[in-house]
Amino acid sequence: MPNNPKAVKVGIVGATGMVGRELIESLEKRRFPVSELKPFSSGRARAAVRFRGRSVPAPGVDASSLAECDVVFLVSSDEVALEHGRRLAASGVWVLDDSSAFRLDPKVPLVIPEVNADALRPDRRLIAGPNCTMTGLGVGGALLHREIGVREVRVSSYQAVSGAGKAALGELFAQTSSLARTGLSADGRAPVLEEGSGSELPRAIAFNAIPQIGSFGPDGSSSEEVKVAAELRKIWSAPRLRISATTVRVPSIRGHALSAWLTLARPTTAARARALLAKTPGLVLAAEGDYPTPRSAGGKDPVFAGRVRQGATAREIALWLVSDNLLKGAALNSVQTAEVLLKRGWLKPR
Questions:
Q1: Out of 43-52, 73-82, 104-113, 269-278, which region has the weakest mean confidence (pLDDT)?
Q2: Secondary structure, 3-state, 210-244
Q3: What is the DSSP letter of 349?
């Protein structure tokens, strides 16, 4: 790849995290033209990652090294994004940020390539990626919105623990192992478990469901629910879209699932909705009677849909959506955005 005249220098901040490692694997699998990979850890200075069969050191963030890159993927915290994002973009580096720091900034494109690649501009080098929960709905309802118009969305999410990070996954495994040893009671009844809590999540997650992701605001909505609504309006360019969301953490490892009810601009049959979903870019529609799950979608690129049916009115369609939160919800979406920049000739060696 070094002899490819289109190959670019790629920086990754947060390369040793879960999303960072998925991003590196996506770059390799999709044969993204990398002339040099510069991975950086947000934490441990002596970490390393694997790329093209070799170990590449991932030191702490170095601003001058980042400035030498053609494109930088930020898969770290809001704080890291705010420290480096604008400065790098102003210096001519393409910056694809997966944090929430810039998503609602009107001057920063918020992009799902299959949905709104037209939001990209050659003079806007700082680009935000969406919340991993919203991505499945953003893709899944895009063609319905474009062809018919979505006026209102009601959605409940069932979100994997990996969305809360490595430490939260560690809690899930530890709690599950501890409870599994308990087993059935002596008389064969299922045990009654005390609520408990963990340090990473507000309640114990093993064999549980937690209807809180983020902090609660004055109206009782969680910060995750507010993000889902605001970002979907921006992605679909639908500022008047009415959205009600309940986001729930469940003890799955990877793959966010959504139950969604879409109120459309005019009466629409389930058959017509299925026909549009079958043509939706980035979406795989299950056969009638079948449906995706977090386990079936885990490690796969597309958004998956199933259980498409008529809602309570002739204008309402209900459906079930699942996508891998670490891939399409984060790493893969960023790589796909960079591929669009390459195709348009905007991302190139400096």
A1: 43-52
A2: ECCCCCECCCCCEHHHHHHHHHHHHHCCCCCCEEE
A3: -
CA 42 from chain center: how many Å?
19
75-92 in b/e burial notation, b at 16+ Cβ within 10 A? bbbeebbebbbbebbeee
Give the residue-averaged pLDDT of 244-256: 97
- Of the residues 69, 84, 145, 256, which is catalytic? 256
Concatenated DSSP letters of 120-187:
--TT--EEEPPPHHHHHHHHHTHHHHHHT-EEEEEEEEEE-GGGG-HHHHHHHHHHHHHHHHH-S-TT
How many CA within 13 A on the CB side of residue 248?
A: 15
Q: Does the pLDDT value for residue 1 go beyond 60? A: no
Catalytic residue among 69, 84, 132, 145: 132
Residue 61 Cα distances to 10, 43, 173, angstroms: 14, 9, 30
Q: State both tokens at 234.
A: 């921006």
Render pLDDT for 63-109 as a digit per residue (tens, 0 to 9).
999 999 999 999 999 999 999 999 999 999 999 999 999 999 999 99
d(CA 149, CA 267): 11
pLDDT at 68: 97
Is residue 197 pLDDT above 90, yes or no?
no
Residue 84 a catalytic site member = no
> Can you list the domains of the chain with their CATH numbers?
8-130+330-343 (3.40.50.720), 135-181+196-325 (3.30.360.10)
